[in-house]
Write a structure and sequence with these properties.
By secondary structure, the protein is an alpha+beta fold. The chain has a single domain (3-146), classed as Nucleoside Triphosphate Pyrophosphohydrolase (Alpha-Beta Complex). It has 4 helices and 12 strands; from the N terminus they run αββββαββββαββββα. The strands form 3 sheets. Strands 1, 2, 3, 4, 5, 6, 7 and 8 form an 8-stranded mixed beta sheet that branches. The chain has a two-stranded antiparallel sheet with strand order 9-10. Strands 11-12 form a two-stranded antiparallel ribbon. β1 and β2 form a beta hairpin. The relative contact order is 0.23.
Length: 195
Amino acid sequence: MSIIENIKDILENRSPVPLENSDQHYIHAAVLIPLFRVPGGYRVLFTQRTNRVEHHKGQISFPGGVVEEMDNSLEETALRESYEEIGLLDKDVEILGQMDDTYTVASNFIVHPFVGRIPYPYDFKISPKEVNRIITVPLDLFFKIDAYQKIDLSGIDDPTYVGPVYPYQDAIIWGATARIMENFVEVLGGKLDLP
């Protein structure tokens, strides 16, 4: 069984853990965790947000955004936002399953993550208002390092942040994005045969 088939099988045979929003304090958002194969293994695609967006300026994130009235499902939100941000057509995404929900601490979102396989190379069309650049990270990095660190993020955001942090080249993946990847490792770790 391939890594992708394995991920799909695991996610299809579990229910994502939802988060409560009984007082409607949180805004619902959905993101796509795009996976693709290159020689040597699988990679995960992230975006770096511009300083012109309303929330999480300059941070590393997944393509995604706020659920809108026109969206028929959370999955549709993740796909629509991926198209708006990086030009990824929904027909080019194979949804493998949904991960557990996570909160954003400072901006009051409940994020619903979906894992998808995408083709690569791809003719991405980046939205200059929302996305500064695309970053791709080897999938196995998230399974190899002890992610839970205390890191000084002075000048970036909350200098007291303690939680999962994944440094890669000149990027620091932290916050809700890192928690989503930590959950990915918890759900799939030990069940994937990574090269």
